[in-house]
Structure of ATP-dependent RNA helicase SUPV3L1, mitochondrial:
Amino acid sequence: MNRCVWLLARLPARPGPAPRHAGAASAVFRSLGGLRHPSRAAASSSERNGGRAPDTSLFVPLHVQPLAPGPEGDIGAELTQPLNKSEVLKILNKFYKRKEMQRLGGENGLDARLFHQAFISFRKYIMESSFLSADVHIILNDICCGAGHVDDLFPFFLRHAKQIFPMLDCMDDLRKISDLRLPPNWYPEARAIQRKIVFHAGPTNSGKTHHAIQRYLAAKSGIYCGPLKLLAHEIFQKSNDASVPCDLVTGEERVLVDPEGRQATHVACTIEMCSVTTPYEVAVIDEIQMIRDPARGWAWTRALLGLSAEEVHVCGEAAAIDLVTELMYSTGEEVEVRNYKRLTPITVLDYALESLDNLRPGDCIVCFNKNDIYSVSRQIEARGLECAVIYGSLPPGTKLTQAKKFNDPDDPCKILVATDAIGMGLNLSIKRIIFNSLMKPSINEKGEKEMDAIPTSQALQISGRAGRFSSVFKEGEVTTMHRDDLVLLKEILNRSVPPIETAGLHPTAEQIEMFAYHLPDATLSNLMDIFVSLSQVDGLYFVCNVDDFKFLADMIQHIPLNLRVRYVFCTAPINKKQPFVCTSLLKFARQFSRNEPLTFDWICRHTNWPLVPPKNIKDLVHLEAVHDVFDLYLWLSYRFMDMFPDANLVRDIQKELDNIIQIGVRSITRLIRASEATSVSVNDRMLNLEDLPAANQEQFSSATKVPGQKRIRGSKALGYKPAEVLSNMKSHGQGSLAARLVREGLLTEEMLKQLEREWQRDPFSDKLRAQCTESHTDKQKHTTKIPS
């Protein structure tokens, strides 16, 4: 008896419901279990909060170790008797099948998925434990003896479920943390003043940004927020040239014009870097239409709602007027709209270019991937013309050099081949925009890749680069490379731009830290998933895509870092499609976790510095990746100065690397020819020398193989082939058809590979290839295959 009293005294006593069945021991321990039996009237967490039900597929169960005997021994067995595990298994399975238990589980946040996972874990825990806690043992014994009911297991099942799914116990708190319905309240400094909002609306080349910048330069203090480093550099230079001291702040760079290091009254920055606590007289937010961007839209929302400036000048498309007006209505601020018209006329031509022989000075061919850039520039220079090349992954310095080369009236380079990177940030003297294709891969709000025609807003943005007011061409023209695309281009440009309806939001580090406090065992990627699932936004906002963040979080999850450091690493602006850059981030994080500073010598060893000019396209792509690694180092150096101490030295070699890349881009056709020597891409098919004209057979048979050269792919079958080869391929009817289907979005590279595999497996195809082989026996004795 003394032993029982001692045991009862050790158990936590909490009030509970009256027992439903007669077993005395069951009654005592059920009351001491500390779990309330839920009532039918209990409301779910989501109903109490008015939010949508969480996506429980994101809830990752924790592992609960089976119990081993403690120093006190098996107390439950001492009070009752050892359990018959086969009988226990029958009781557990009966419990699982009870509809009443599933309903009670639902009322406590366990939907069918969670209920099933919790039961599997609970059953495994019961069956694999060499002994059980006294309360569970006694309940199971009573049920086995007929003195209890199977439903009496529910409080203990629920307790176990909350152990493996800790979010069930704090769902209300998690919902409050992820409540994003009142973003204006996040910025008390901005709400403490009455701001004047001026919207400068108009198309490209309408002077809207110019008028906003004039007000910025005339103010006592000001901040310019732009989407690109190039634009921030331009305003930085323009301000200081106008004798208005201005600092530069980007993710990778800080330039203070004051020799003693004091901050200037004006600052030009990339929009993610703007301060929402520093007071200014005037703030300029450029390209406001990017507030809808699935990945970066949150930065424009933060600047618009949070900048503490007496006047906020917003520049961008008229499609954003209604949204900005509604957002400012929620802050109690009025919007003054100033509309602008294009300063120079632009004409959509009635004819397509059709052939590169029809190019003339001032032409810009716009492609939507690098392989087309390489192909078109190669064909242009094969005609004896020089061309400049601009695409997104080039360093800013190289882009500016190529733009200067194209704009220089004394330079023989009169043709530009570019991606949509020319849409903003560069002043170019373009007479005619020629769309090589109208199909572009894009990422939707769900993070899925799609191939679709470019939207009207982007078509207008790119077309507007022709005939700019400040260039030598006062009238612009727009057309397409292919006649079939011209009708579609006119249709796209004639559409009205749909109004922008929502603004992006993104979880902050503080919000994720609060989530982690409640869910300490969850991974950062899982925390982000649960946050987005539970988040509540009103109709004016959406939660930005966090796939890139989660990609980096999963990549460095195994590295021991505290949550705030891990969050910063995951927000690093890198291209996850570049393996070398991702590997570098991984090594940076691992070095950081060991508390070992990443010195200049370390980064030089990692990148094999010094580097030499590229010999082929593969080398050029690698140099671009190394430049991005230097950018990553500089970006991290401003957040962890003690761990990335050699920012100035890295910036110096990055400038040298920029010059090396410029050398490669200037001779890009030579690099393409070097790549051609061993790689001729024809829709991922093998190309024999017998397929080429005699002159080309001699050229390729004498070419030297470049070690390690990868197969080159593109959205067209035109890449990396001289004009003579192209015409010959068109005569075969294979390359041109596949290229057209890919260009029109009817085929993808994966579909082409699938067709190739089916062709290789099909018996009829085998027979046909055998016949072809027999008919070409003599030729194949002299045939050399070039891997595509």
In short: The first strand starts at residue 196 and ends at 201. Residues 677 and 704 are 6 Å apart (CA to CA).
